[in-house]
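Technical annex, item 7. During the second reporting period the consortium partners agreed on a shared format for inverse folding records so that results from different sites could be compared directly. Each record opens with the tokenized structure and is followed by the designed sequence. A conforming record, contributed by the partner at site C, is shown below for reference.
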């Protein structure tokens, strides 16, 4: 097949999914959403209740959120149409937030949608941050165990940064008290959301509700101090023991996770929220990456002799599916990930799914390693039935950290153009692997830093020094497109351009 034919087929594929239809054959809105972190009062801080000094569980003020939404809307320059819509996901709504304040916050979210014409959705933390529920935490029966003796979890291990951080102990998903709390909480959130949806319908703006994600990478995690895999409390509750273990320890714990997801989503659906707007959220390493076919993988990289279920914390892709919701996954790029999702979606005859978290780079890996641009990244989801794609990292860290890889990938001009293309309704073409700014720029700067001082000393050329000063000012302003133009001018002055490279020697600099 020649190149022109391939491009034509990709374009036709894009057109086919631009008018995505649901199970009833109706055209459905596809949402491009940006996560706004609302666990604490400052949405520029992505942390929640983890670590030794967690930020307080207090929702941001309305004016703060309005400014954040206005920034997204202004810089993208479009809100889309009935079929392709810009959205924000507010969350995470955790057990640490009180019932009354959570209901008020959901109401405020719908007010913001009407005021800004940007759709709103909500992201629930189903089990991670629950230290505020002293009634639950004080009972050892609600805390997961690391062995058949019932030794309680010391804290849940989170591997979000360079070093593991600690969260409250792993919640036991099938404890009777926990299940009652989930039923009450999901009913409260569901009723508040449905009240907002009803208001949107009255105002003839139902498309301003993007959906609710019921979970935050739902899993049975590992013990913080020992690294041991958990889930034994849940197994004991299911009637198993050291003397009478299940035939398949992994599968039994997978069932616990799936049933917990179903408990949350059933509560939301029973409160009136359409299952077509409810999504789960799990994270998994693709089979190819787990088997070692992706040598560059750093996100969820396997270590030691463990099973696939253990590595995915008993949440392989199959557990994301259920009767009361659509599946949702974290979608940071890795070899085979989108193929695995496509396979699972097809095998379940699923209509509609979500990227509940992701952007076009792997966490802790630095930018430019995914081998695709943002348009291709979006196309691999929207062209394959995704009804919601949630992008993480917009604005995270504030202006001081705008040079961080996540923000370059998510907020750079290349990404903005892809967002505009989607919102305009133009077909997204996948398969592009042209070098992105985050691929091209670091080796150029590295070459300049290594060679320019000696070149200036040898030639006495003052223009090179002036351009270097200009480039430094542009870097300080985080204007990376202009930085590249100046870098190209310097390299041309020096007599040669840097070659594109997969390496990123100045990741920490950028």
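Designed sequence (site C submission):
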């Amino acid at each position: 097949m020649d190149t022109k034919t391939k491009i034509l087929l990709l374009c036709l594929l894009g057109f086919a999914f631009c008018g995505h239809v649901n199970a009833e054959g109706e055209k459905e809105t596809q949402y491009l959403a940006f996560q706004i972190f609302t666990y604490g009062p400052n949405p520029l801080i992505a942390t929640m209740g983890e670590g030794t000094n967690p930020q307080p569980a207090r929702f941001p003020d309305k004016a703060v959120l309005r400014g954040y939404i206005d920034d997204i809307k202004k810089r993208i320059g479009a809100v889309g149409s009935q079929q392709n819509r810009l959205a924000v996901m507010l969350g995470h709504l955790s057990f640490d937030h009180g019932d009354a304040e959570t209901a008020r916050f959901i109401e405020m979210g719908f007010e913001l949608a009407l005021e800004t014409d940007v759709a709103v959705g909500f992201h629930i933390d189903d089990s991670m941050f629950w230290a505020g529920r002293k009634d639950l935490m004080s009972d050892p029966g609600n805390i997961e165990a690391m062995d058949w003796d019932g030794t309680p979890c010391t804290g849940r291990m989170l591997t979000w940064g360079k070093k593991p951080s600690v969260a409250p102990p792993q919640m036991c998903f099938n404890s009777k008290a926990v299940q009652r709390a989930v039923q009450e909480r999901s009913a409260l959130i569901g009723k508040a959301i449905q009240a907002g949806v009803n208001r949107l319908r009255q105002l003839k703006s139902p498309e301003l509700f993007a959906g609710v994600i019921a979970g935050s990478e739902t899993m049975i995690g590992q013990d913080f101090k020992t690294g041991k895999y958990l889930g034994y409390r849940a197994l004991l509750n299911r009637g198993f023991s050291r003397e009478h273990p299940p035939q398949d320890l992994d599968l039994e714990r997978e069932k616990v996770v799936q049933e917990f997801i179903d408990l949350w989503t059933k509560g939301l659906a029973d409160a009136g929220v359409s299952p077509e707007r409810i999504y789960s959220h799990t994270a998994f390493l693709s089979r190819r990456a787990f088997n070692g076919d992706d040598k560059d993988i750093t996100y969820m990289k396997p270590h030691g002799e463990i099973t696939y279920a253990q590595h995915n914390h008993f949440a392989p892709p199959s557990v994301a599916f259920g009767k009361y919701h659509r599946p949702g996954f974290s979608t940071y790029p890795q070899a085979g990930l989108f193929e695995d999702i496509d396979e699972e979606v097809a095998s379940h005859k699923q209509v509609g799914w979500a990227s509940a978290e992701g952007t076009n780079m792997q966490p802790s890996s630095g930018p430019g390693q995914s081998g695709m641009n943002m348009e291709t990244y979006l196309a691999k989801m929207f062209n394959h039935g995704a009804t919601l794609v949630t992008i993480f990292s917009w604005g995270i860290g504030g202006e001081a950290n705008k040079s961080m890889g996540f923000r370059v990938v998510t907020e750079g001009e290349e990404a903005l153009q892809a967002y505009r293309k989607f919102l305009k309704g133009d077909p997204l073409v996948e398969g592009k692997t042209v070098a992105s700014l985050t691929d091209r720029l670091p080796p150029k700067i590295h070459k300049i830093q290594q060679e320019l001082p000696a070149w200036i000393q040898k030639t006495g050329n003052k223009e090179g020094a002036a351009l270097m000063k200009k480039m430094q000012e542009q870097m300080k302003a985080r204007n990376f497109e202009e930085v590249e133009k100046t870098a190209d001018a310097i390299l041309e002055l020096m007599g040669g351009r840097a070659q594109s490279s997969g390496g990123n020697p100045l990741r920490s600099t950028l």
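The first strand starts at residue 30 and ends at 37. The chain is about 40% helix and 10% strand. All partners now use this format for quarterly exchanges.
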